[in-house]
Amino acid sequence: MRAVEYRYTPAGWVTARLVGRRFPHRVASMGGLRLVDRPAPTLPGPGWVLVRPILAGICGSDLGTVTAKFGPQFSPYVSLPAVMGHEVVGRIEADGEGWRRGQRVVFDPFLPCAARGLPLCPACLDGRTAACERFADGGISPGYCIGFCRDLPGGWGELVAVPAAQVFAVPDAVPDGKAVLVEPLAVGLHAVLAGPPLPGQRVLVIGAGPIGLLVLAAIRLLDIPCDVTIIARHTEQRRAAERLGATQVVPNAQAAEQLCLDRGWAMQHAGLMGARGLTGGFEQCYDAVGSGSSLTTAVRLVRSGGRIALVGASQREAVDLTWLWMHEARLDGYCGYGRESTGEHTFSVALRLVSAHPELPIDTLVTHRFPLEGYPEAIATCLRRARSGAIKVVFAASDGGSQTK
């Protein structure tokens, strides 16, 4: 089968680090990505099904790997070479395991204890399968999810092997453009459901990439009547935030801070050597970037006793935690999803909410579609968002050429 495969080499890693920022259009071809022909995946055993992708998204974690921005802490839970792609809507390839050929589905791509044939660890017993303790164990190569595992190629190929218990039927009312967003929506939804804002509270979303916009969408899908401010750098991101129901859209952290001061939500205090303190702010902050500066913004602007949810793929950068300590705020991390307090899987909740709210245009976040052979342009489009207007870029199995939505 055809697939876009990532191979690590020291030279490719260094090249990606050096050219990624200045020459993003060259990252894919000069780094570790290649279009290859490789054998179709085989099912590891009973309880697995094959899915043929219709659309497969490019995630921030994929980009972080391709551009060599992730640190080595991640490496024990990745095995290479790997076909990436874990945000997928597709069709069941053959009858079996309770599924019919041609059924449209999405799937939870994590590879926790049950998928590896292991007794359940404490996290898996608690339904927190994205925090499994055994992503490097069992009869499958290390890999925290499909797309980062040598044995299980992801959606940037023509077939994906998936645990049948982690597959979810897509309702007819949910089009492919929305279904391909169920996986990243589930990340934002899981973070919101873990501590939903109360009616009337003030929420700050830092970053208006796919995850930040889908955190906003999750709050609106849940019909929580709260004020949501989102920091959006680029024009298309700002327009998308407005379509999804943001109360305020601001261009940067300074504007968010000034908004707090102008609205009387916070007070500023002067200190030594030009230091500025802030009291008040937002009851909840969702950091959908994961950089040192974005988390510092969240720590600074969260209200005393408030909550920060880190949902962006965290990067190795210094963070000043002074205000986290002084504000006695809470910092929680969310990289996935699992069994929610209702007993439902986050994917089931997401599909139900998206089906019940057809008016919320989350599919407009899919701005660009490419065939597999267009992977260099697809990656460059992601990395040049200001110029391309990209929000979510996907590979489309049936496309004959590149296109915007």
Overview of this protein structure:
With 405 residues, the protein is an alpha/beta fold. It folds into two domains: 2-183 and 342-404, Medium-chain alcohol dehydrogenases, catalytic domain (Quinone Oxidoreductase, Chain A, domain 1), CATH 3.90.180.10; 195-333, NAD(P)-binding Rossmann-like Domain (Rossmann fold, 3-Layer(aba) Sandwich), CATH 3.40.50. The protein has 14 helices and 19 strands. It has helices spanning 10-19, 27-30, 60-66, 122-125, 176-179, 182-193, 210-221, 235-243, 253-263, 292-301, 322-326, 346-356, 375-383, 385-388; strands spanning 2-6, 33-37, 48-57, 82-83, 88-92, 104-107, 160-163, 167-169, 202-206, 227-231, 248-250, 266-270, 276-280, 282-287, 302-310, 330-333, 366-370, 392-396, 403-404. Strands 3, 5, 6, 7, 8, 17, 18 and 19 form an eight-stranded mixed sheet that branches. A hairpin with a 5-residue loop joins strand 12 (266-270) and strand 13 (276-280). Helix 6 (182-193) packs across helix 7 (210-221) and helix 6 (182-193) packs across helix 12. The longest helix is centred in the middle third of the chain and has 12 residues, at 182-193.
Number of strands: 19
Q: Roughly how much helix do the residues carry, as a percent range?
A: 25-40%
Strand residues, percent: 15-25%
- SS-based class: alpha/beta
**CATH T-level topology of the largest domain:** Quinone Oxidoreductase, Chain A, domain 1
CATH class of the largest domain reads Alpha Beta
Number of helical segments with 4 or more residues: 14
Distance between the termini: 26 Å
Shape estimate: globular
Main β-sheet description:
8 strands, mixed
Determine Rg (CA atoms, Å).
Answer: 21 Å
Low-confidence stretches: none
CATH architecture of the largest domain: Alpha-Beta Complex
Q: How many domains in all?
A: 2
